[in-house]
Design brief:
The chain is an alpha/beta fold and 229 residues long. The chain has helices at 9-17, 70-85, 91-102, 109-123, 144-154, 172-176, 205-211, 214-220; strands spanning 20-23, 37-42, 45-50, 129-132, 159-163, 181-187, 224-228.
């Protein structure tokens, strides 16, 4: 999967399901996607936050994008988190987690996201190995599906699992020819108690962490179906 900034629960369901999770960071950057932004809950409504990047271009790879002003980005982000979640039940633990995540000396957004995923996995006791695709020696000139298959082979895998949105992108027969199973995660409807009676769905994992204990999170991580193709 492409690296997303503090992604939604389905992303972590995928991470939790596999042995090795590959952040696909050597593909082209997509503007207005979820690589450097996401939503939290502020005053009962989604609030978009963005980590500023320098010279954003869809002609550059994700791992070629550097932070523009990481120090100020961190300050603004933590101020927003405090405004949004200071009264949430898990605020004390999660603010410490976010401080650990942000206390890192990185330049590239792709490296930061890999670091943040690893820290959240440690918190949730997820044992999955997380790597960047750019760290693998491979043929980047291959078409998209062939690149995925080569990455799986480089990792010694025999089962590729993707988000449900990828179901139309891949040819099951091409994977079968390589003795690779192909499956997709379909997240079940997720609902939990936020501040009020109205539930706001599809927010960053930060929102779930702020309102749910580790036991609750472990339950929510299992709320999906694995669909074979």
């Amino acid at each position: 999967m492409q690296p997303y900034l503090f992604p939604y629960i389905g992303y972590f369901q995928l991470v939790n399901e596999v042995d090795t999770f590959v952040c696909f960071d050597d593909v082209h950057f997509i503007k207005k996607g979820w690589i450097n932004r996401n939503n939290v809950l502020l005053n009962g409504a989604p609030k978009l936050f963005t980590f500023s990047l320098s010279k954003i271009s869809q002609n550059k790879l994700i791992n070629e994008h550097d932070f523009a002003d990481f120090d100020n980005t961190k300050k603004d982000f933590m101020k927003l988190i405090e405004q949004s979640y200071e009264k949430s039940p898990q605020y004390g633990d999660i603010i410490k987690l976010l401080e650990r995540i942000l206390n890192v000396n990185v330049v590239k957004i792709s490296n930061f996201i890999a670091h943040s995923l690893k820290e959240i996995c440690i918190y949730l006791d997820i044992q999955t190995k997380i790597i960047n695709s750019s760290d693998l020696e491979k043929n980047n000139a291959l078409p998209a599906q062939e690149r995925i298959i080569e990455i799986i082979e480089k990792c010694g895998g025999n089962h590729y699992i993707n988000a449900i949105g990828g179901k139309t992108l891949y040819d099951g027969e091409a994977f079968s020819k390589k003795d690779i199973r192909l499956s997709f995660i379909q997240t079940k409807p997720i609902k939990y108690t936020q501040f009020g009676d109205v539930f706001t769905p599809n927010l960053s994992i930060i929102d779930l962490l702020m309102f749910n204990t580790k036991d609750d999170m472990n339950y929510l991580l299992q709320q999906y179906e694995l669909i074979k193709k």
